[in-house]
Amino acid sequence: MIEFHEPVMVSEVMRHLLSRPREVVVDCTVGDGGHSLEVLSRTKGTFVVGVDVDSEAVAVSRMRLGESFPGRFVVTKGDYRELPTVLAKLGIPAIDGALYDLGVSSRQLDAPERGFSYWGEGPLDMRMDRESAFTAREILNTWSEEEIGRILRDYGEERFSARISREIVRAREEGPLETAKDLVAVIKRAVPGPARRGATHPARRTFQALRIAANDELSRLGTSLERAFGLLRPGGAMAVLSYHSLEDRIVKSVVKSLADRGLVKKLTRRPETASEAEVSRNARSRSAKLRAIEKVP
Ligand code: SAH
After folding, report:
1. Ligand 1 centroid to 188 CA: how many Å?
2. Is residue 284 part of a domain?
3. Residue 126, CB half-sphere, CA atoms under 13 Å: how many?
4. Are residues 211 and 222 in the same domain?
5. Among 21, 29, 204, 265, which is 20 to 30 Å from 112 by CA?
6. Atom 6, ligand 1: which residue's CA is nearest?
7. In this structure, are 210 and 247 located in the same domain?
8. Residue 242, strand partner residues
9. Same domain assignment for residues 100 and 153
């Protein structure tokens, strides 16, 4: 049996996304289609458009949902930043709901050849879109020590960013860093003993930072949220699940600027988090923050 990515905060997301009848809902990060499946099975006529930059996610969600919900689900490979173009191609001028479930899927994380995980042995790839040319390997082997240090600090909130970037630049003089294992070894050399033995793996933050940089995740997000809002019909809802503080900060600031202009009603006054029961069942939900808004008529 295929193991699908377990969707996070399903009932909370659906409460906001499906607070009224919806004609068209866009799942901007469809992944394995866990959230889309819920939208489809909890509604009668709602049409769901799935979007993902990862062609494997497109194939998996299509296989999982296309046949079970004939005429109600379509999925396209695309960047959520290009949402207006993606929808225009499908002949869809406006939408009633948009969902973003940010970060990496467990399918991506568990595929060692994609290089997302520090426990794997794969190449330092980390591209969500495997047709893009830019990889984590390129960052590690060509960027300056300062630039690498900056992303580790800003995107990874890594305390030892300076030490790690120095060690990366030193190590690559002997030959390019190629695999997740190479990088983990460098990080272990760079951080002080206690950090090497701490509760969180010493490479966790560096891997997160590289993933964000390799996919230009933060700048895409802000642009996309604004464009998606532009496509929403009055009364339409937008729900965003984020997994670290930088993502949430962007979501919060887009929401605030829309709310200050009186364009949206906040459906969540503060970000909602997963229940204890869910966190104990699904570790990925631990850091999830959900914000939702409705476009005012
Ligand atoms: N909700 C999904 C899981 C989503 S995981 C489920 O229940 O199965 C996040 C997904 O976002 C990944 O598949 C990733 O490829 C996708 N993604 C990341 N950046 C993207 C972007 N810029 N545009 C579209 N999809 C993106």
Report:
1. 30
2. yes
3. 28
4. no
5. 29
6. 34
7. no
8. 289
9. no
